[in-house]
Amino acid sequence: MLARFITTLTTTALFSCMATAIGLPGLAVAEDSGPELVRGEQLYALCTQCHGADGSGNQAALAPAIAGLPAWYVKAQLEKFRAGIRGLHQGDRGGLRMYPMSQWLRTEEDREAVAAYVASMKPTDTAETVAHSGDVARGQGYYAVCSACHGMDAGGNPQMGAPPLVDLNDWYLISSIEKYKSGIRGNGPGDTLGPAMIGMVATLPDDDAIRDVVAYIKSLKKK
Amino acid sequence: MILNSVLPEASTYAADIDRLFDVITLLVGVPFLIASFLFFSFIFRFKKREGTPAKYITGTEHQYMKWIHRAHVPILLFDVIIVVMAVNVWYDVKQDLPEANSTVRVIAQQWAWTFVHPGPDNVLDTADDIVTINELHVAKDTLYHYKLEALDVLHDFSVPAFRLKQDAIPGRVITGWFEPTLAGEFGIQCAEICGIGHGLMPARLIVEDRAQHAAWIAENSPLSVAAGVEDESASERTRLAAR
């Protein structure tokens, strides 16, 4: 009896250690999660390498915080990366990492599952890194253009294909605007929304304006 | 003989490397097969038998040692043959840098290849350069230098059809060469573990004849593309003006 108990205990411990070591997903999924979220968490194990298990991102890996982003937006970006509409530009170092990674999600169901799992994650605190030098008051003026799609509260608008901005890292917002301005992003073949963004960011005349508008976006989170 | 039966030889030095591979395979493989045959046949021949007592031998007597001493001679000879051939091939491929007809820049990063081709002026780092992702275009029978860089971690520029393999090291620009001899489409891979996306870092090598390559250069040069856009704009203006 004792021998059987010890064997069972050892097997369980060994399995748990192996599961942790290889990142075997699914074990930590809440019991009330649907099958899509379970599948999403399994697939998300791949994303944790750069975006982190909690989706908080890693600037060193050029991976933004994604926890809590709406599923429709995450799925749309995965589709764009996968099709080479986004990320296939020699100046887009982060995008060039996402292009091959998105190939792992081979079916639409898988992309939907990952997107649903990311959306289910609790948004993390995206601490300010570079936007502190921006002027919030000036940024509010610049943001008037952005608010047409992203909303007055930067909460996004699915009908316009505009994601929420408040939970994004300031460094990622700056980098994205700079990519749109330089044509690194938004120019991919078949990118229907990119050209609009390229036109919108043209209203930001210089680096100071970019930092100002990002400072304003981040200030909305505090309200 | 062995490699080219499964992979075409698409560069000038591919045959030299294949020949070296064949020689090493024969010089090491044939003795290995003979030794394996003797080993297993002796195990079978001298297995335990009723009425035959086992005998311990030290193996130090001449009649036993000669089988080891005599084997040293071909081993040393084969080593010399392999080293001499390998040094010659290494010198030709890695240390000799023949004069190039053209130069391409190869940039490795997690997890993609960026290739910078010289434009119609055939000079790298000028405005007409053509930049591609995961697709390298070269002309057949043209000697190229490559300038290999890595933006983040170690990578390895591996072109099996060329028998070319060269590490890419962050902070260094490594110059090497190749001369394609066979037109066609071949694989490029990263041969150094470089992160979770390493296995998804393939690229295509497209070897065209010179005329086709010149046409590709002319068509894809940013200056040609810009001129094309201007031409289209001019046509559009003309068309509108005519209405």
What is the gist of this entry?
With 223 residues, chain A is an all-alpha fold. Chain A has helices at 2-21, 35-44, 48-51, 71-83, 93-102, 108-120, 136-150, 170-182, 194-201, 207-222.
Polypeptide structure, described:
The complex is a heterodimer of chains A (223) and B (243). Chain A is mostly helical and 223 residues long. Chain A folds into two domains: 25-120, Cytochrome c-like domain (Cytochrome Bc1 Complex, Chain D, domain 2), CATH 1.10.760.10; 131-222, Cytochrome Bc1 Complex, Chain D, domain 2 (Orthogonal Bundle). Chain A is 55% helix and 0% strand. Chain A is built from ten helices and no strands. In chain A, helix 4 packs across helix 6 and helix 7 (136-150) crosses helix 10. Chain A is globular and about 45 Å long. The N and C termini of chain A lie far apart (61 Å). Residues 5-31 of chain A have low confidence and may be disordered. Chain B has 243 residues and is an alpha+beta fold. Chain B folds into two domains: 3-95; 102-232, Sandwich (Immunoglobulin-like). Helix content of chain B is 40%, strand content 24%. Chain B has helices spanning 14-45, 62-95, 210-220, 222-242; strands at residues 102-109, 112-117, 130-133, 135-139, 144-150, 155-159, 164-168, 174-178, 184-190, 203-208. In chain B, the strands form two sheets. Chain B has a five-stranded mixed sheet, with no helix packed on it. Chain B has a five-stranded mixed sheet with strand order 4-10-9-6-7. In chain B, a hairpin with a 4-residue loop joins strand 6 and strand 7. Chain B is elongated. Residues 232-243 of chain B have low confidence and may be disordered. The interface between A and B is medium-sized, with 13 and 15 residues.
